[in-house]
Amino acid sequence: NAGVTQTPKFQVLKTGQSMTLQCAQDMNHNSMYWYRQDPGMGLRLIYYSASEGTTDKGEVPNGYNVSRLNKREFSLRLESAAPSQTSVYFCASRITDNTQYFGPGTRLTVL
Amino acid sequence: QKEVEQNSGPLSVPEGAIASLNCTYSDRVSQSFFWYRQYSGKSPELIMSIYSNGDKEDGRFTAQLNKASQYVSLLIRDSQPSDSATYLCAVGPIGTNAGKSTFGDGTTLTVKP
Q: Which of A43, A100, A103 sits opposite B99 (nearest CB)?
């Protein structure tokens, strides 16, 4: 089992560019999450998907969109990147006992 | 006031000592409580979860929960240099919204040999 995988690992964008962060899990989990982590801070929930076909906003959804492509994959899209979106992005999936498993993260810099 | 507050670090303890990490939360209806460990440059990993008042022990780790005081703590006994990391407290609901935890900003622990 690979667990939760994320691509890319690193990305540099210019202001206004768009990109999609990919996340996949092979643990057959229903719920998946996207977080951002700014330096010295905890994780803030951007969007989550409780099950295939459903998505909902978290604490900081502005500037992002998501797609739950199927049970395995949950992507995060930045339509027009801004320097304030420079962060580390983590994808996670969850089993029913609340345990979340995190991917390795994507380090995004927006110039 | 932040929803989840952790004692500001960094926290430094000598090897073999007990490290005490504290967390308070503001939402009284919270029902699930977690401690994650995050090594520098890595992703968080769950080390303890607790749902009921009292203590829960797992090896060298003990989580303590007091819902009346809205307080959860993590004790690490016999601290090792490998315990040096940032510890994140997370608090959330159960049921339909389970997984929508709110994270604190973390406390960085350094265990000195």
A: A100
